[in-house]
Amino acid sequence: MNQETAVGVIGAGTMGSGIAQVAATDGHRVSVFDSNADARSGAQARIHKILGRLAEKGRLDRESAKAIGERIVFVPDLQGFGDCGFVIEAVVERLDVKTAVFAEVESVVADDCVLATNTSSLSIAAISAACSKPERVIGAHFFNPAPLMPLVEIVPGLTTSEAVVHATRALIDDWGKTTVVAKDTAGFIVNRVARPFYGEALRILEEGIADVATIDWAMKEFGGFRMGPFELMDFIGNDVNYKVTETVFAAFFYDPRYKPSFAQKRLVEAGWLGRKSGRGFYDYREGAPHPQPKKDDAVGREILMRILVMLINEAADALFWQVASRDDIDLAMTKGVNYPRGLLRWADDTGLDEVLDRLGRLFAEYGEDRYRPSPLLRRMAAKGKTFYS
Ligand code: NAI
Predict the structure, then answer these.
(1) Which of 9, 10, 14, 143 to mutate to test the pocket of ligand 1 (most atoms within 8 A of CB)?
(2) Which of 17, 159, 289, 331 sits 20 to 30 Å CA-CA off 150?
(3) Ligand 1 atom nearest to CA at 142
């Protein structure tokens, strides 16, 4: 595949329109289909507005912006996808809808057309199984907003051919993205490894160890994270974030490490979804007071370390289970969710003995499986090894 390859995008919502813009910016002709005509016209207007704004700010010259817009064509059915060499699906997160879409697209495209899915939680194996040529089906998981977030997780399914993995990665690298390869397991890399950032923060809150503002302050002040966990959950939307946690929890056969929290569940039930609803962990309504953190450095550092060792444990376990390589795990967290450092690098800097000691103390205190250290951490510490040595 190269710049001449015609690209098809199915689903013109948040992700589909962003991906169409990325492909067209790289020079591809892009056909976009959405079963909802309003979604098609909405996406078209959104893309033109974004391109216009980029031109105004001088980030794109006017001619390029115009050319990018003209390369994206919105089509009323999948018949227009006949010449596509690469199709990416970003329709609603439902297996029945995705498999029906792929069955239809397979009847239109040539045999060598690659079919990618942007799913964040369904298995690539399940989606591929519904296709007549499962070897050409692959996951390509973009992050929101697709034009701005550099990371794309490339997820081969059980049946995906090596050639398709290679070609897809090369194509998306050409789009200026940072690609990592992840095993077809729940949450891939980012949505799995990031869980304790929310889960352990919620746990600290629920136990009354610290309040929302103090936990957020600790993570930013001592960890260098751009946003605290509660600010981020409110930004993502508590409904969306809670759903991901619940999905990952179920997909791991209810491993207690991923257990959702009542605090967040109640927020969702109350409709306190975060910024978008005006209220979440924080109150965003006009004139509402913003709670101040209790700035005690010793408490702040304890909070950071408790969440950090859980994140490191998750990253180490992802490596242990061969979800991805060491470098890809670290790259995914810095490029996909803006972590200040890769977690395995951070583990080395912290010292594996220190990480294990803290996990061991949590495990002893609570007696919960949630705090069990990854076998890989133990193995490496016992041998005096580090992740980067
Ligand atoms: P969205 O709700 O904004 O857009 C989905 C679009 O699919 C809608 O416009 C809808 O009309 C269309 N659609 C539904 N059924 C269809 C069909 N049979 N044929 C054609 N179009 C159809 O959803 P969003 O957020 O863009 O998500 C799309 C996919 O991307 C999902 O699989 C989601 O899990 C995944 N994803 C979402 C991210 C996010 O932050 N929103 C991040 C990464 C992946």
Answers:
(1) 14
(2) 159
(3) 43
Structural domains in the chain, sorted by start:
6-181 (3.40.50.720), 192-382 (1.10.1040.50)
Packing angle, helices 229-236 and 238-251, rounded to 10: 100
Closest CA to 118 of 135, 136, 93: 93
Q: Of ligand 1's atoms, which has the minimum distance to the CA of residue 93?
A: 32
pLDDT of residue 195: 97
Helix (H) or strand (E) holding 331: helix 326-336
* Residue 137 beta carbon below 6 angstroms from any ligand 1 atom: no
> Does the Cβ of 244 fall within 6 Å of ligand 1?
no
**17 CB near ligand 1 (under 6 Å):** no
H/E run at residue 196 = helix 195-206
* pLDDT tens digits, 190-248: 999 999 999 999 999 999 999 999 999 999 999 999 999 999 999 999 999 999 999 99
Q: Token pair for residue 374? A: 């990854």
pLDDT of residue 121: 87
pTM flag (> 0.70):
yes
- Any atom of ligand 1 within 6 Å of the Cβ of 13: yes
SS3 of 12-36: the string is CCHHHHHHHHHHHHCCCCEEEECCC
Dist CA 273 CA 265 (whole Å) = 10
Output the CA 72–ligand 1 centroid distance in Å: 18
Asked whether residue 304 carries a pLDDT value surpassing 90, the answer given is yes
Asked whether 92 lines ligand 1 (CB < 6 A), one says yes
Question: What residues are annotated to the active site?
Answer: 141
